[in-house]
Specification:
284 residues; alpha/beta; 6-stranded parallel beta sheet; 5-stranded parallel beta sheet; 9 helices; binds magnesium ion
């Protein structure tokens, strides 16, 4: 029974620089059992090498090929739409590297696209330049539309907030590539090399991970170790297939079927984990 996982990172694997207990063991099991997986992130700041290094510092050993960022999805999408194009970039290393790797030149005059990603380099000079380029015909591309991102010291504005400023100023709508866009969800599934029904999306955010998974027809797992609580679920018209506290609980559930996909029909627990006999009562 073939299956594999697309796994969001922030709120699933770690919170800031803190590992969520049990996530390392879950990834270790996937590696040991040769279950395919990819990490899927809407953060365009880091290259896949940066991301692998961050995970390694937390004790999770993965290869670069296990990482799929919205910066990569955006650059590949643009390379398909307009090979060898030019881009004016408001963003950081991950996005610049991905564009270069996909045959794009980063320019500051007359670009084909204005591409916006996460970063701390955002300033009004860049915004002014971008607005003028868009008014002259450059197309506005967002790596994602996340309104904000959690950090250790609280929320910071996300890529979506920066993009909203450009949209309002120019009266145009950005095309967004990151989760939940089918562009990124489908590209990630192809990276995994699996079919829709074999793909399971694990995430902590309803608006991106779960919505994207539901729209593509993947199986979906919501973990409550990040930004969503059980009570929040009532406010949504779509639902995840499985809800767990964290990857530690998902690992426990997988254990019961010896890591066969319990969400598929016909997969039954391999062994009963309930005690087969009542506990012995000592004579008084
Ligand atoms: Mg997340």
């Amino acid at each position: 029974m073939v299956y594999g996982f697309l796994i969001d990172m922030d709120g699933v694997i770690y919170r800031g620089s803190e590992l969520i207990p049990g996530s390392d063991r879950f990834i270790h099991e996937l590696r040991t059992r040769n279950i395919p997986f990819r990490f899927l992130t809407n953060n365009s700041q880091r290259t896949r090498r940066d991301v692998a290094a961050k995970l390694s510092r937390m004790g999770i050993e993965v290869e670069e090929e296990h990482i799929f960022t919205c910066a990569m999805a955006t650059a590949r999408f643009l390379a398909q739409q307009k090979p060898n194009g030019t881009a004016f970039v408001i963003g950081e290393g991950g996005l610049l590297t991905a564009l270069h790797e996909n045959g794009y030149a980063v320019v500051d005059h007359d670009p084909d696209y204005v591409v916006v990603g996460e970063g701390r380099t955002f300033n009004l000079e860049l915004v002014e330049a971008a607005v003028r380029m868009i008014m002259r015909g450059a197309k506005l591309i967002a790596t994602n539309l996340d309104p904000n991102c959690p950090t250790q010291s609280g929320l910071r504005p996300g890529c979506g907030a920066m993009v909203a400023m450009l949209e309002t100023a120019t009266g145009t709508k950005a095309f967004s590539v990151g989760k939940p866009s089918p562009v990124m969800m489908r590209a990630a599934r192809k990276e995994l090399g699996l079919t829709t029904d074999e793909t399971v999306m694990i995430g902590d955010t309803m608006e991106t991970d779960i919505l994207g998974g539901v729209q593509l027809g993947f199986h979906t797992v919501l973990v409550l170790s990040g930004g969503t609580s059980k009570e929040d679920l009532d406010g949504y018209t779509y639902r995840p297939k499985i809800v767990v506290e964290s990857l530690a609980e998902l690992a426990e559930m997988m254990e019961r079927t010896d890591w066969r996909p319990f969400w598929q029909p016909g997969v039954t627990p391999k062994r009963d984990l309930r005690p087969t006999r009542p506990p012995a009562v000592l004579p008084s």
